[in-house]
């Protein structure tokens, strides 16, 4: 874990904040307490003059080991086919691998889990990533969860998406809602850039799937 954060509702020990601030380990302990402070302890930390130190220490840790807590992404895609046919498309490993941009390998490694190697050529996240893709919580032909994890020299990317299919006349609407987390140098790029790249890759993936309908067997 990169940073310890006090769970909501947990309060720091009263005695720990009332005790005199001493040099050495006591200071380090108090800085950790103020790093994870809640609203009640915030005023105490500021009065003791350690609030600024706590913020500075937190900033230094984030600079050394950056971590992005997550970005939400979503999309809606229309397929000119019935849900059963779209579901078959979404579950076909050959189709999935051909529609993932930069996919070098896509090999089964367990129940609905695949080992993946990707080569990404997009600005600061350029590089090779090894990871897994899992098609979990399947409810044919209406919903499933896609979970992806990847790691490379530029850091790591983890993501999960809830994918739901619904019939609308002669077409099928696919709704996607998910989130992406990054760590390492990638996290320094900021949420807007990483979120934009993630959305672009999502659009390309489903755009490719839509094009596959013309050649994919029923």
Give your account of this protein's structure.
- The protein is α+β, with helices and mostly antiparallel strands.
- The protein has two domains: 14-64, no CATH class; 67-212, Alpha-D-Glucose-1,6-Bisphosphate, Chain A, domain 4 (2-Layer Sandwich), CATH 3.30.530.20.
- 36% of the residues lie in helices and 36% in strands.
- It contains seven helices and seven strands, in the order ααααβααββββββα.
- The protein has helices spanning 14-18, 25-35, 39-48, 51-64, 83-91, 93-99, 191-212, and strands at residues 67-79, 103-110, 113-120, 127-139, 143-152, 155-168, 171-183.
- It has a seven-stranded antiparallel β-sheet, with helices on one face.
- The protein is globular.
- The N and C termini lie far apart (46 Å).
- The model is unreliable at 1-32 and 34-65 (pLDDT under 50).
Task: Indicate the proportion of strand residues.
Answer: 35-45%
Order of helices and strands: HHHHEHHEEEEEEH
By CATH, the architecture of the largest domain is named 2-Layer Sandwich
CATH fold category name of the largest domain:
Alpha-D-Glucose-1,6-Bisphosphate, Chain A, domain 4
How many β-strand stretches? 7
Largest sheet: 7 strands, antiparallel
Q: CATH superfamily assignment of the largest domain?
A: START domain
- The gyration radius over C-alpha positions equals 23 Å
Strands in their spatial order, largest beta sheet = 1-7-6-5-4-3-2
Low-confidence stretches: 1-32, 34-65
Shape: globular
Structural class: alpha+beta
